[in-house]
Amino acid sequence: MASKAKIKAVTGMNDMLPGDSAIWTFFEDTVRDVATSYGYRPMRTPVLEPTALFTHGIGEATDVVEKEMYSFEDSLNGEKLSLRPENTAGIVRAAIEHNLLYDAPRRVWYFGPMFRHERPQRGRYRQFYQFGCEALGFAGPDVDAELILMTSRLWKELGIREVKLELNTLGEPAERAAHREALIKYFEAHLDALNETARHRLYLNPLRILDTKDPDMQQLVEAAPRLIDYLGEGSRAFLASLERQLERAGVDYVINPRLVRGLDYYSHTVFEWTTDRLGSQATICGGGRYDGLMEILGGKPAPCVGFAMGAERVLELMKEFGVHPTEPDCTVYVVHCGEGTLDPAVEVAEELRDLGVATIVHGGEASMKSQMKKADASGALFALIVGESEAAAGQVSIKPLRELPEKTAFSGQKTVPAEEAARMIFDEILVIDTKDL
Ligand code: ATP
Ligand code: MG
After folding, report:
1. CA-309 nearest atom, ligand 1
2. Nearest alpha carbon, ligand 1 atom 23
3. DSSP readout, 300-365?
4. Distance between CA 44 and CA 79 in Å, rounded?
5. d(CA 380, CA 358)
6. Reported confidence tier of residue 407, pLDDT bands at 50, 70, 90
7. 13, 127, 128, 165: residue to mutate for ligand 1 pocket, most atoms within 8 A of CB
8. Which domains does the chain have, with CATH numbers?
9. Residue with CA closest to ligand 1 atom 9
10. Peptide bond into 141 cis (omega under 30)
11. How many helices (H) and strands (E) does the chain have?
C-alpha cells in the first residue's frame, strides 16, 4: 500500500497540546476574572470579516494591512474577506451594527485567535491569541487610567515582573496635522537619509517613520519635530490627568515621545508594556485611544480606548519568571477489574461528578496493578477501587494516593458502602486544602 503523505499544520500556526493546557487555562481564567472585576463583559466576533473593515479600520499604510493580512475572495460568492489581524475593528463594527451604545457606554473584553502573515519566530506567529479590552463611549482620561491599572494588576496576578510601561499622547487631530506638516518638511530636507519604507510613508503616514527600527535612521528620527511640542492646553491637561492617576495608583511609567500610532482616528493616550526578556519581540501589550474610529466605520462618533495583549508572549514571559501551573487530570480515578464492576464504577463516578468532583473511570480493561499506575499518574487524590468482591457486596474501596493532612479521615484504604462513597470523598476534599499537598 502506498504510504500517505503526512499533512502538517500551516507554517507559523501552533497546536496547543494537553501538556500546555494548564498554563493556558491559568492565563484565560486570570484575564477573565480580572476583566470581570473591572466590570468588563465578554464579546465575540467572527474571525472572518469583510476585507474593507480592516483597510478602513486599521489603515492602508500600516504593516498589518500592507503585508500581513490573509485576504482572499470567497470562490463561492466573490466576497472579499480577511482573517482578522486584530479585534478592535471587529468589536467596533459589531457595536455599530447592533447599536450597542444606544443608551450607555460599554466595557467589553475578548480573547481569541488573530492572523497575520509574518515571518514566524519566537513570539511572532501567523496565528496568535490576543486578550483585549475596549471601553466604548468613554471620553477619558479616567478610563484610560483604568485600563492601564487593569493591565498592571494582570501582570501581578500572572506572576510577571520587570515589565516597563511606555506612555505617550497623540493629541488632537488638528495638533497632529500641524505636527505632520512639520514632520514632512523636516524629512523632505533629509530625503537622502530616509530608507525605502520611510520614503514610501513620507506622505502616507509620516508619523510611522518615527517608529522605525532602522539603526541608520535613529539619529534623524531623534532630532525630528516632536508632537508633544504641538499640543494645545486640552491635550496637555488630558495627559497630565492620566499621569496623576497612574502616579496615585503607584504605576511606574516613562514617557516615550516616539511611541506612535500612525492613523488619524487615534488621539491622546497610547501605551505599550515591554520586557527585555523576550528578545526582539519585546511588546507584550499595546493600547490607546481611538476616538475617531466609530465615525470612520459609519457609526455615531464615540470616544473609545482599549488595549490588546499577545497571549503567546505573555505565556513565554510567565515561564521566564518560573510560573508553571500544573493541573491534575482528575481528583478521583476509578479502578474497576472483573465481572460486574464497570456498572458500579460508572455509577459512583457520576455521583462524584454530580458533586463537582473531577473523576476519571479507567477506560478499557487492564490488570488492577496497571490501572493503579494510571491512577497515580493522573495526579488524582484518591483511587476508588471496584473489584469483583466489592461489587458483589455493594461496596467500593477508597485509597488515598497522596499523603493527606492529619485532619482527614483516610489514613489508609477504607472499604465503604458504594452509595456513601461519593459523599465521603466529597466531604474529605472539603477539609483538604490542596495547597498543603
Ligand atoms: P510588533 O511590533 O511586535 O509587530 P504590533 O505593533 O504589530 O507588534 P499590535 O498590533 O499592537 O502589535 O498587537 C498587540 C499585541 O499582540 C502585541 O503587543 C503582541 O504582544 C501581540 N502580537 C502582535 N503580533 C503578533 C504575532 N505575529 N505573534 C504573536 N503575538 C503578536
Ligand atoms: Mg506587527
Report:
1. 15
2. 310
3. ----EEEEEEEHHHHHHHHHHTT------S-SEEEEEESTT-HHHHHHHHHHHHHTT--EEEPPS-
4. 22
5. 9
6. low
7. 128
8. 18-171+231-320 (3.30.930.10), 332-436 (3.40.50.800)
9. 286
10. yes
11. 15, 16
Q: How far is the CA of 128 from the centre of ligand 1 (A)?
A: 9
Atom of ligand 1 nearest to the CA of 132: 14
Taking the CA of 280 as reference, the closest ligand is 1
Residue 393: predicted pLDDT: 94
- Ligand 1 in reach of 284 Cβ (< 6 A): yes
Q: What length is written for the chain?
A: 437
pLDDT at site 264? 67
In one-letter notation, the amino acid at residue 331 is T
Burial class (CB in 10 A: 0-12, 13-18, 19+), 170: buried
Residue 314's CB is within 10 A of a number of other CB atoms, namely 27
Tell me: pLDDT of 433 over 80: no
Determine the Cα–Cα distance for residues 392 and 59; give it in Å rounded to an integer: 72
Dihedral in degrees, nearest 10, Cα atoms 228, 232, 233, 238: -60
Three cell numbers written together for 230: 504641538
What does the alpha-carbon distance between residue 414 and residue 323 come to, in Å, rounded to a whole number? Answer: 37
Top mean pLDDT of 87-96, 174-183, 218-227 is at 87-96
Among 107, 137, 130, 102, smallest CA distance to 43 is for: 107
Give me the half-sphere count of Cα atoms (radius 13 Å) on the Cβ side of residue 14: 17
Pocket test for ligand 1, best of 110, 125, 212, 281 (most atoms within 8 A of CB): 281
Asked if 273 and 151 count as a contact pair (C-beta separation under 8 A), the reply is: yes
Could you tell me the distance, in angstroms and rounded to a whole number, from the CA of residue 372 to the centre of ligand 2?
Answer: 50
Between the CA of 63 and the centroid of ligand 2 the distance, in Å, is 7
Of 54, 64, 283, 318, the one to substitute when testing ligand 1's pocket (max ligand atoms within 8 A of C-beta) is 283
Q: What is the mean pLDDT of residues 341-355?
A: 96
Tens digits of per-residue pLDDT, 83-137? 999 999 999 999 999 999 999 999 999 999 999 999 999 999 999 999 999 999 9
Rounded to whole angstroms, the Cα distance separating 32 from 25 reads 10
309 lines ligand 1 (CB under 6 A): yes
Residue 313 to residue 285: CA distance in whole angstroms = 9
- For ligand 1, atom 8, the nearest C-alpha belongs to 283
